[in-house]
Specification:
heterodimer; A: alpha+beta; four-stranded antiparallel beta sheet; elongated; B: six-stranded parallel beta sheet; six-stranded parallel beta sheet; globular; binds thiamine diphosphate; binds magnesium ion
């Protein structure tokens, strides 16, 4: 089962490598990883998607908590939550394709954020399945380059991940 | 406020921490620190002959005393040489602080001379690490390093210090912090009371209980409480390889070690138990045999300070996270309370008596201490050598070991009645551990008898430390069970590879260990005759201020038994000799 783990950790050099190292060392996989400082810039927030049964996720959570730099770990998938991934895709946009890409982008409520003579960069934000469908909806258009931010997530309602 | 250079700060901080010894080896990146050591002349430094040995010596010191071991090495090769020793400490949860010199800050990342990414290289084998970035931070980093190394589940902590930050002319305020608090690190101090209540109930209703005690009981200073609890309940106890001494070996309730080379009665009792109280043990693969067949009828209570150890290998019915001491105290109180408020007597005396008679039958059938379970030879049997060592030291020595058959024979035949006396590399299984570890112990406890049980393979992995022992007058006794083979490798080759001894034989090239010991200024003794065994060991231990190397020629074809049947055997499936299995 796919899980989203949210990790609050000290914004210290080496902290990220300890988290990533844990996953490779213990044979857990990381599907996506997103990390940046929080409003309190002594802390970083890391969102990580992985897969595993309850036992494995429990083990991952325990090991993450053991990392000295890690302050808190939450499995967002345990409760109601929102998740967003941002996609930038550079597509060939020439001739008939130029309009077609624009139309598909509008349907998905994406934005064209760079317009070249023969290319567009489209930005789209949403849950990963929406991003996946957009990529397949581009259909005939030639995809030149794709980059995704990785999932970022939060629990809905009053629940807050802070120290 | 006092102004100190980074180098002086390190030495002063170690002094303020109450460090008794630094085990180390100098080199370019650490030279400012070494100059500070010279000038301060406060904390004694032991110059080893290889950085791996520095880590093992600090490790042995830590295991025997309970205090953190301290290591100081230079950058690059000094740091990488220490890695095996750090990994050894990590696997057995030993408190250790390793300070490594690093190239100057502005050279980091440029493949400078003797640069290695120590923080990166050591990352998977440390509890935590620090790369010092400002001299001013040194006192608080060292304070944190000791705090992290010694609390919760202990482990090694690396502090990597770029050379420029230790420069003698750059001085800053020095104040050693009195306490540490870290929002990201708060080890548990107490077990969950609801869980403790459940555990007490389960234990009191057991009919075939076993207490399975590991190294955590020793590290967590829980031996006394565990012993009291076990005696009060009259329940049998088995110790892991790391837990030997946690429960006194000569006590009637002790079943011996469990696991791959565990005692028949211990493995049988585990397999047939209905309740297992696991304390500070981690269900290692050298204990469980095939996990899916592990103790099929048992409910498991698991006490451990590290939540990640619980339910890692086998599902647990009652997990309790907390330090062994507080949890065992709470458990003991809960047991009293439940006994007092119950109408029937608990535990069920009849069931427990039946369980004991079953255990006594197992003991009588194949117990290692209930009859002679090994053969005879014209040569000295290795088991007899360990028994002679046990007798000669009244069972009170600190015994270190290396890795191999000799290690298992020592674990089986030296009856450890006290915690912290059996010092071996259980988790990593590091050949070369024994001699430097013994050195660290003897320095900490000069009046104690310290023996290193080793093999001719292992001892050669850190034999250079005979020189360190000469320099600091460290009169340990080396008991070399010389079987002319990498014996444990040979045993597996006998059992699984039709005795094809691929690269496990070197008899013709072994040194004359007696002369070798003498070359370092020590005493060497060669023992070949059975009749000489006991007198020689007594004679060696009578030489209080001499390091004696006892080169004992033992039967090369002997195997260690019991041995778990693998693959796919259960706890109860054992070879009992070359021909007999359960
Ligand atoms: C550093 C290291 N290398 C290899 C091994 C694998 N190993 C385990 S036991 C053993 C043989 C040890 O031989 P010896 O020290 O003579 O002890 P014996 O088994 O003969 O008593 C070997 C090679 C190890 N444990 N450690
Ligand atoms: Mg040998």
């Amino acid at each position: 089962m796919r899980r989203i783990l949210s990790v609050l950790m000290e914004n210290e050099p080496g902290a990220l490598s300890r988290v990533v190292g844990l996953f490779s060392q213990r044979g857990y996989n990381i599907e996506s990883l997103n990390v940046a400082p929080t409003a309190d810039n002594t802390l970083s927030r890391l969102t990580l998607t992985t897969t595993g049964d309850d036992l494995k996720i429990e083990q991952i959570t325990k090991h993450l908590n053991k990392i000295i730099d890690v302050v808190k770990v939450v499995d967002l998938t345990e409760g109601a939550h929102v998740e967003r991934d941002t996609l930038l895709v550079k597509v060939r946009a020439e001739g008939a394709q130029r309009d077609e890409v624009k139309r598909t982008t509008d349907i998905f409520r994406g934005n064209i954020i760079d317009v070249g003579p023969a290319t567009y960069i489209v930005q789209l934000t949403g849950p990963i399945d929406k991003l996946d469908s957009f990529l397949s909806a581009l259909g005939e258009a030639e995809i030149l380059e794709v980059v995704r931010s990785g999932v970022a997530g939060m629990a809905r309602g009053e629940k807050v991940l802070t120290i | 406020m006092e102004q100190l250079s980074g180098g002086d700060m390190i030495v002063r901080a170690l002094e303020d921490e109450g460090v008794e010894y630094i085990f180390g080896y100098p080199g370019g990146a650490a030279l400012h620190i070494y100059d500070s050591i010279f000038k301060a002349n406060s904390v004694p430094h032991i110059l080893v002959r290889h950085e791996q040995a520095a880590a093992h010596a600090a490790d042995g010191y830590a295991r025997a005393t309970g205090k953190p071991g301290v290591v100081l090495v230079t950058s690059g090769p000094g740091a990488t040489n220490a890695i095996t020793g750090i990994a050894t400490a990590y696997m057995d949860s030993i408190p250790m602080v390793v300070i490594s010199g690093q190239v100057q800050s502005h050279l980091i990342g440029e493949d400078a001379f003797q640069e290695t990414d120590m923080v990166g290289i050591s990352r998977p084998i440390v509890k935590h690490s620090f790369m010092v970035q400002r001299t001013e931070d040194i006192p608080s980093i060292i304070k944190k390093a000791f705090y992290i190394a010694t609390t919760g589940r202990p482990g090694p902590v690396v502090v990597d210090v770029p050379k420029d930050l230790t420069h003698p002319e750059h001085k800053f305020d020095y104040e050693y912090p009195e306490s540490v608090s870290m929002r990201s690190y708060q080890p548990s101090t107490k077990g969950h009371s609801g869980q403790v209540r459940k555990a007490a109930r389960l234990l009191l209703n057991a009919k075939r209980p076993v207490i399975y005690a590991g190294g955590g009981v020793i590290q967590g200073e829980g031996s006394e409480l565990l012993t009291q609890l076990a005696r009060k309940l009259n329940y049998p106890v088995t110790n892991t390889l790391m837990g030997l001494g946690a429960y006194p070996a000569t006590d009637r309730q002790f079943l011996g070690m469990l696991g791959m080379h565990g005692f028949y009665e211990a493995n049988m009792a585990m397999h047939h138990s209905d309740v297992i109280l696991a304390v500070g043990a981690r269900f290692d693969d050298r204990v469980t045999n095939t996990v899916s067949k592990f103790c099929p009828g048992a409910k498991i209570i698991h006490i451990d300070v590290d939540p990640a150890s619980i339910a890692k290998i086998v599902p647990v019915d009652v997990p309790i996270v907390g330090p062994v001491t507080t949890v065992l105290k709470d458990l003991d109180a809960q047991i009293d309370q439940q006994q007092a408020s119950s109408e029937r007597t608990m535990p069920d005396a009849e069931a427990i008596a039946d369980w004991w008679s079953q255990i006594d039958n197992w003991r009588a059938a194949h117990g290692l201490w209930h009859g002679r379970r090994y053969g005879e030879s014209d040569l000295i049997m290795p088991q007899d050598a360990i028994t002679a060592l046990y007798e000669a030291t009244n069972g009170e020595a600190y015994v270190t070991s290396d890795v191999g058959q000799h290690q298992m024979f020592a674990a089986q035949y030296y009856k450890f009645d006290y915690p912290r006396r059996w010092i071996n590399s259980g988790g990593l299984g590091t050949m070369g551990f024994g001699l430097p570890a013994a050195m660290g112990i003897k320095l900490a406890m000069p009046d104690a008898e310290v023996a290193c049980v080793t093999g001719e393979g292992s001892i050669q992995m850190n034999i250079q430390e005979l020189s360190t022992c000469a320099q600091y007058n460290v009169p340990v006794k080396i008991v070399n069970l010389r079987n002319n083979y990498l014996g444990m490798v040979k045993q597996w080759q006998d059992m699984q590879y039709d005795s094809r001894y691929s690269e496990s034989h070197y008899a013709s090239s072994l040194p004359d260990f007696v002369k070798l010991a003498e070359a370092y200024g020590h005493v060497g003794m060669e023992i070949k005759d059975k009749a000489d065994l006991e007198p020689a060991i007594y004679e060696a231990f009578a030489m209080k201020d001499k390091l004696v190397f006892l080169d004992i020629f033992v039967e090369p074809d002997e195997h260690v038994y019991p041995m778990h049947v693998a693959p796919s055997g259960a706890m109860k499936d054992m070879w009992l000799s070359k021909t007999e299995r359960t």
